[in-house]
Amino acid sequence: xxxxxxxxxxxxxxxxxxxxxxxxxxxxxxxxxxxxxxxxxxxxxxxxxxxxxxxxxxxxxxxxxxxxxxxxxxxxxxxxxxxxxxxxxxxxxxxxxxxxxxxxxxxxxxxxxxxxxxxxxxxxxxxxxxxxxxxxxxxxxxxxxxxxxxxxxxxxxxxxxxxxxxxxxxxxxxxxxxxxxxxxxxxxxxxxxxxxxxxxxxxxxxxxxxxxxxxxxxxxxxxxxxxxxxxxxxxxxxxxxxxxxxxxxxxxxxxxxxxxxxxxxxxxxxxxxxxxxxxxxxxxxxxxxxxxxxxxxxxxxxxxxxxxxxxxxxxxxxxxxxxxxxxxxxxxxxxxxxxxxxxxxxxxxxxxxxxxxxxxxxxxxxxxxxxxxxxxxxxxxxxxxxxxxxxxxxxxxxxxxxxxxxxxxxxxxxxxxxxxxxxxxxxxxxxxxxxxxxxxxxxxxxxxxxxxxxxxxxxxxxxxxxxxxxxxxxxxxxxxxxxxxxxxxxxxxxxxxxxxxxxxxxxxxxxxxxxxxxxxxxxxxxxxxxxxxxxxxxxxxxxxxxxxxxxxxxxxxxxxxxxxxxxxxxxxxxxxxxxxxxxxxxxxxxxxxxxxxxxxxxxxxxxxxxxxxxxxxxxxxxxxxxxxxxxxxxxxxxxxxxxxxxxxxxxxxxxxxxxxxxxxxx
Length: 666
Prior knowledge:
This protein has helices spanning 2-32, 37-63, 76-85, 89-106, 108-122, 136-185, 189-194, 197-239, 241-248, 250-288, 290-295, 299-325, 327-352, 357-371, 377-398, 459-466, 489-494, 510-514, 523-532, 536-540, 559-573, 589-602, 638-644, 647-656; strands spanning 420-427, 436-443, 448-453, 474-479, 482-483, 496-500, 577-581, 607-611, 623-628, 631-636. By secondary structure, it is α/β, with parallel strands linked by helices. It is built from 24 helices and ten strands. The protein folds into two domains: 2-398, ABC transporter type 1, transmembrane domain (ABC transporter transmembrane region fold, Up-down Bundle); 413-495 and 575-656, P-loop containing nucleotide triphosphate hydrolases (Rossmann fold, 3-Layer(aba) Sandwich), CATH 3.40.50.300. β1 and β2 form a beta hairpin.
């Protein structure tokens, strides 16, 4: 409520400034037409009330005061845009003030032209002569000085509104992109796996840029258009109500056309933004899969796919353009009708002496100022609908609920011992059969536990649930006796180091990638982590050593080198819990041997969870757990499991390449 009061007070100040700016010109114009003083006072009061009502309506809508709920549009786009702009209401009011004042000063030249005609025709009997300037040269000098001041003020406020609106647009663009990206980072992995990164890129980039373009000039154009209609319309009514009535006849047609076009354009521009997301999604996928495209000689096929998507985007744009382009001709015909009416009817009234020649000149010029800006309404409406379509997509992203909220209990890193318990855990990916059912597992602090099993048995799912990338649907997971749902999410993930099969390296140097997540780590710690991961040798052999740029996704390095850098990254983090999820599945024997040597050192004094297809990776684990269809079917040390001749022994026999009947050796 306080914010609304402040904004309304500011709106009142805007009204006062507008009244001061427009009143002299209005009084002068009416004096040319010899309008009685009572009519002058009434007209000024009406103008002030109109400007005040508009200013208060805009202020209340932005401030969100519930006193005038009817002022807010029921359309989702405007409501969401007002919500997004509400933190910037002071800057908006200042920019709006400059826009209104600029337009009021821009409307002054027709008044000055009318006064000049009045001076030339009436000479010593003109309105300006009543202010003690009887000579025509003196009056023209006064008009020249006033014109200079008016043009200077108009230029000043044009500079100010351009500066304010553009900076506002850039600020909103910056804040919205950061807010959208930050919200994305807090969404669960299921959101990203179900959606498309290209579509998200289109929202964070193209849609936010489209909104920025509307705020850059569209908001100012709408505001100045309303100012023109209010100010010029009031002045025309004061001078000649009959002529003004004729001039206003096309305005309902224009407004009807605007609303009609807006309703038909909205779904078309929504479709345009969706098609743009499809194109961005395809491009992102293809650029990431260029190796596969080339290896399968699928360039022509992918070009055809892109051609189809791009053609769909082009056609959706064409449908929107065909409709929006038809708007301006309609406006032009309406303007032509009004201008001809003013030209003929006003000319006849001036010829008969009903209105002064100066007033007729003023009406002819001011009609252009009233109606011609409406030709830009089509472009402004076009920008508005594009902006609203983009706003809806951005807000839809921001309104996506966070399915995995953070707990409130802090988890100091130094206090973590590393005992992990899965109690009766059940989980199924959306629309699929359960992958874990009544799963129970306890991992003592400081131990190394290997988890093996066939593809789809739930090994990697355990990791995702432990990191709370997904939420358990049954049972619970505890870390040191505390349910992980009660722990702060960032603290939980800081306590766990993950090295996955799919290593992701960022574009940057080797040192920067090792230090990712431990951004303040000194070079000595980075080199020590690299040595522990058996990565120091190949890093020092690179052209710039630790300062070698690895390229996007680490494409300048081999798979084994990327894997060891990922391991060094996890070791530098020095987590109490270390998870190796298929860390050796895609590496050569030499790299696997290097990682094995590293594991003997780095698994000491920390809880280590090793998930592997290669049983040699978990051979020396304190305990090996065998999963099948989401359940523990065997558990024990390597030798014990071989002696049982169960599922683990069968896997070991297959990986050892033993033929039927050959003796199994531990």
